[in-house]
TrEMBL record:
The keyword Mitochondrion does not apply. Residues 50-269 form the Tryptophan synthase beta chain-like PALP domain. Pfam families: PALP. It catalyses: (1S,2R)-1-C-(indol-3-yl)glycerol 3-phosphate + L-serine = D-glyceraldehyde 3-phosphate + L-tryptophan + H2O. Its cofactor is pyridoxal 5'-phosphate. Signal peptide: none annotated. Its EC number is 4.2.1.20. Keywords: Amino-acid biosynthesis, Aromatic amino acid biosynthesis, Lyase, Pyridoxal phosphate, Tryptophan biosynthesis. The keyword Lyase applies. Pathway: Amino-acid biosynthesis; L-tryptophan biosynthesis; L-tryptophan from chorismate: step 5/5. It comes from Rehmannia glutinosa. This is tryptophan synthase. It comes from the Eukaryota.
Amino acid sequence: MRLIDQTDENFLRTGKFGRYGGIFVPETLVISLNKLAAEFQLTLHDPKFQVKQVEGTFKDATSDAIRAWVEDLDNSYYLAGTAVGPHPCPAMVRKFQSVIGKETRKQALEKWGGKPDVIVACVGSGSNALGIFHEFVRDEDVRLIGVEAAGTGIDGAKHSATLAKGEVGVYHGAMSYLLQDDEGQIICPHSIGVGLEYPGVSPELSFLKDIGRAEFHTVTDKEALEAYSLLCRIEGIVPALEAAHALAYLDKLCPTLPDGSKVVVNCSGRGDKDVATVFQYEQEQQPQ
């Protein structure tokens, strides 16, 4: 935990988790990012500051957003929706998303009288996982498990398992694990859950992997779809296909846990947007 404490102390100044993160951008953007970081710090200490959650549904979207920002620095700003990009964007998103973990701690205390034993979240770029993990990072007795998309198979070319199969590189202004070829070119990710289709990942999750504080596993498209259908059938809850990856990992996890273990899965989105995708997949699986 001392390493995490030291990293947190330096992060807001350097924008780095160990070797990950940082500001890898054109010089014209550095002044704007430094101003943003300063304003972010002021806002955090403003008693009137509040976080409001809004709905909305991202590699191409992030690229286009940064490109549009660079083209008109005087009249636009880059609003990050996930925990990637140059500092301070990952720090800002983590702060905003951390309401998930705070609420989880509160409800666990009310329901169980204590903390969860295990927390499971899907991982694409990392914002929803960090949102629930960050509150518990210093609780060493709480396992933090991230689940990436193995797509059609982790050993093939169609997956989004950046932490499982990626190498360290720089993308969208920060250093993290990346899906890249031998020449450093980005490999197109794949997942049935389009929100997991990102070739990079949060610098902080990269750091948590390296120091062993969080563990990361993978789930295939087929396993995620089975979990999606199961939750619909037994609970009447339609999860997002992204969250279904975390749910699917319970089949592997739960048999290994002691009786009475308290497990929280971050069901990070609703799945009505995915109904057409699920229907098309099931049609394709029908015998001809």
